[in-house]
Amino acid sequence: MRIKWKKIFLSIIGGIQLWEIPADWQNIENWEGRRSVRMGYDKDLRDLEQALTDMGEQVQNAMAAAIHMVFGGQASEFEQIAQHESEMIQSEQDIEHRCMTLFLRQQPVAADLRNVSAILKAVTDYARIGHFALEIAEIARVMDRQASDNEQFDQLLHQMARDAVNMVTEAFSAFRLRDLKLAEQVKQEDDIVDRAFNTIKAELAQCISKAPERIDMALDELMIVKYLERVADHAVNVAGWVEFSKTGVYDNKRLV
User: Fold this and answer.
1) What is the pLDDT of residue 15?
2) Domain 143-166+179-256 CATH assignment equals 1.20.58.220
3) Where do the domains of the chain lie?
4) For the chain, which terminus, N or C, has the lower number of CB atoms within 10 Å?
C-alpha cells in the first residue's frame, strides 16, 4: 500500500531533527478493518466446518446403532437412535442458518462461495442418511428376524450393511478433508451396494415364493436393504459435493 508522508520539523536542543509519519491514517484504519472482518469470516467458516463434522458423527452413531439392532440388538436401543435423530434435526437447522448468515453478511465469492454452498447442500444428505437410520431402526424394533436357512443370504445382507456404512464413513471423511481421490472411491463403491441390493431382492422374491409364511419378515428385510441402498446414494451425493467444493463441478455439470 502506497503511503504518503508529510514532514514535521521539530526543534530539539540546539538542532533540527526530521521526523516522518504516515499522512493517510484513514487508509491504514480501513485496511485493519478489512483484515479484522476477514479473520472473523475465517473463524465462522471453521466453526461451520466443525458443526458439519459434529453432525457427521451423530449420523454415523445412529447408523451403527440401527445396523446393530437389525442383527441382534435390543429394541430399547431405538430410543437412543430417536434421540440422535432429534439432535441431527437441530444440527441441520443450525448449519443451514450459519450458511445463510454467511451468504447475507459476507457475500462469499470463488472458493469461499463453493465451500459454503457445498456445506449447505451436503447437510441435506447428512440429514437424510440419519433419517434412514431411524427408519431402519423402526423396522428392526418390531421385526422378529431370525437367521434364514440360506447362510449365503445372511452373509450378503451383513456385507451390504457394512459396505453402505463404510461408504458413509468414507464420504464424510472425504468431505472433511476435501479429498477428491477418496470421494471418487466412494462413487465407485456404490456399484457394489447396488449389485448387492439387486441380488438380495431376487433372493427375497424366491424366499416368499418358497415359504409364504416368511413374507412379513422378507418384506421387512426388503425395506431395510432399500434404505441401505438409499444411504449409499446419499453418500455418493456427499462425495459429489467434495468435487463441487474444489472445482465448481457437480455431476459433470459446472455450477459455479
Assistant:
1) 44
2) yes
3) 143-166+179-256
4) N
